[in-house]
Amino acid sequence: MTTTTPCSATDLFTHVLRHGNRADPYPYFAQMRQQPVARMDDGTWLVSGYHEIAQLLHDPRISADRLNPQDAARPAARSLLVQDPPNHDQLRRLVTQEFIPRIMGMRDHIHAVVTQLLDAHTTPQPGQLDVVAELAYPLPVTVICELLGVPREDEPVFGSLARRLTRGLDPVDTQTDEEIHELQQARTELVQYLEVLIQQRHTAPGDDLLSGLMFSQDPSGGMGPVDLRVTLGLLLIAGHETTVNLIANGTLALLRNPEVLARLRNDPALATPLVEEVLRYDPPVQMSGRSTLADIDIAGTTIPKGARVRLVLAAGSRDAKRFPDPDRFVPDRPDNAHLGFGGGLHYCIGATLARAEAQIALTALARRLDSPRLVADPPPYRENTILRGPEHLMVSFDRLTPDVQAN
Amino acid sequence: MGPAGRGSVGRIVVVGASLAGLRAAEALRDEGFTGDLTLIGDEPHEPYDRPPLSKAVLSGWLTTDHTVLPRVRNIDARWLLGSAATGLDVPGRQVALADGRRVDFDRLLIATGTHARPWPERAGGGLHGVHVLRSRDDADRLRAALLSGPRRVLVIGGGFTGGEVASACRDLGLNVTVTQRSGAPLASALGGVIGRVAADLHRDAGVDLRLNTTVHALEGDPAGRLRRARLSDGTVLPAEVAVVATGAVANTEWLADSILAADHRGVRCDGACRALAADGTVVEDVFAAGDVARWPHPLFPGHPLRLDHWDNAVAQARTAAHNMTHDPLDHRIHQPLPAFWSNQFGVNLKSVGLPTIADQVVVTQGSFDQHRFVAAYGQRGRLVGAVAVDSPRVLNGYAALIEARAPFPPVLNAPDGPAQLDPVDAEFPHRASPEHSVTRDSSPHIPATAGPVLTAHQ
């Protein structure tokens, strides 16, 4: 990156997409914010300022429909993530009604899963742990599969589908034909798998989320078969591919800030604001797409009607116009209204669950790992730009102690 | 001069120990004020939160013990609770208290809020069973009265407080009648169009709603207990509990002999929260914040505002605290977009901007018939307010448009909006005359542009 000539929005975004920059895209985001609303050469608008993103997340002239021109790659049915009111509202209401009650009171269970996962590696000897593979990934996956009612033995199938589908969230022009084909293949396999699951529930309903969605008593009517499949697919990806990065990014922040790790070890209450700071400082979901329904005057420019807009949440949450000392990790940062869960109509439905999982997992790591340190800094990152996180997070330690202080 | 200088020392007295007073005291310490800090409150209670009083407390979900406001930080203050301020001597820098004490100050913050407009004695205001709802003691008394099993509750006034009380009564299974001077509940706050939705909500919940009706008198038995109300249409309505919800009056009686420009509509101040004298000049070292303050909002020129809004109390307290500890050159102007909410009959109503000054209204998103929609308010071709009925998440977007002085009707093309926006008359009744006022001090002849006193709930 040169400092003599200012980079265009297009160049900056290209840098961000480059896998070699995955470990630290933040310097590019900082440059982006110098022009918080900017048009790229392909006509997409990049929005990187906190206040501008916050405004557009709530703007009635904004649509969550990406208006993706490559219709071939677009599935026929679409999740509530990319739908607008009133369809979105009805789908979301159904999901909320069935999802939220099932995650209330889950903290003890999450703690039990964390304990179990770490117990498998408890040792009085020095050793190594891949935090991604052994904790950050299996924790949310176990929880979402239990919630949905996916049999434990099917999890590997489910998990590999989720990984393959996640790549589909990245900008289409960064994907090869082969990848796009592979994506469609994965979608087909998912539909086939879900069909079987749905058929089973028809004959033998359970008390899981899937049964709840199928037999919802909502006066507006339950979910049709297509919406049901798509919604399940969304929950599956969201459950597999977001919290893993929250836990991994949080672990990374703790290991890079040993004094914070020490504080968390002695003060579990710190976990609450600390997870919010991870969501601000190094968010699992880095950007979110929208399109405009009318001309929007913003930040001294006009985004025309019908434009595609990319809200760079990770850039906005480090905007010095909103957060003092934004590039510093402050575990008890006051007034931390980050953009980590998005905002407005599409605010993350799973926020409560993600928070609980991350708070409990990070606290357990802080308590049970004796003298942890990163084996590689930065760790290797996955290809994905939008749902960004480490592929592996190898941590070496002197001991991994049993869970003596359960709460 | 910043907090390091004069602003950080001396004696600051805050009169009013509710939301604005407490948050201002906390903000003063945040701003680096290290001098003597005194909070004066007329009620014996430590600061508590008012919005739950007309909702969760009446319905029984919460007792008033649980409405105590959380403390953001230690403020190291002297608390003078249960002692009302009765006078202000600006030149002498002293506040007089009801118990005869006098409290010296270098700088003063007035945050005395409002009280519920009482029912006149001559029309039955002294009867046992006649209530208002503003303080936690009011709420405890009213809750007890509702639990005593009255055969009918009369709510006088169909504003936000009236609607919330009626909603709580229905939750408790009580018969309730609401009288409303104009043609719809909430009409003076949101206009007649949205008011008709509110009327549906009342009636669907089983409220006996009497529109275009006022109460002439409340009448009791020889023991002084409320028995009936005589309505303007000649009806005699039996009732054992009446709740007077006819608006709020600023607590400024104690300022009557000061030099401040203060009356029942509030304490006049400038955008920096500095109190003004009757001649319009700034009174040095005297500030006002919260429900009692009446100030010019840059976004709505010509309308000195007094807002009974929770968010405003907090924001104005912070601005006042900043300005009390800084030189005028570093003063901030208080110009938040007005915002408030109400929950009644199972529906959430949220408002941003200033619907009361609008001449037109249009539904921009959602379904009016299903009572889940957003309505935009316009004044002379400019967007000035928006109200969301059971769709609160979208309202921030409208707030940004209002602050940007967007045109009305706004060009949104919202996917859940109508194909074409057709604004209609917003149908505000006589804007400046408070509903159901039977007192003579409510200045019914102020022209609409001179001062819509927003008397929303809480």
TrEMBL record, chain A:
InterPro entries from the UniProt entry: Cyt_P450, Cyt_P450_B, Cyt_P450_CS, Cyt_P450_sf
SUPFAM superfamilies associated with the record: Cytochrome P450 (SSF48264)
Keywords: Heme, Iron, Metal-binding, Monooxygenase, Oxidoreductase
Family: Belongs to the cytochrome P450 family.
Protein name: Cytochrome P450
Organism the protein comes from: Streptantibioticus ferralitis
From TrEMBL, chain B:
Keyword entries, A-Z: FAD, Flavoprotein, Oxidoreductase
InterPro entries: FAD-oxidoreductase/Apoptosis, FAD/NAD-bd_sf, FAD/NAD-binding_dom, FAD/NAD-linked_Rdtase_dimer_sf, Reductase_C
Region (Disordered): 413-458
Organism: Streptantibioticus ferralitis
Bias (Basic and acidic residues): 427-443
Reductase C-terminal domain residues: 340-410
Pfam families, A to Z: Pyr_redox_2, Reductase_C
Protein name: FAD-dependent oxidoreductase
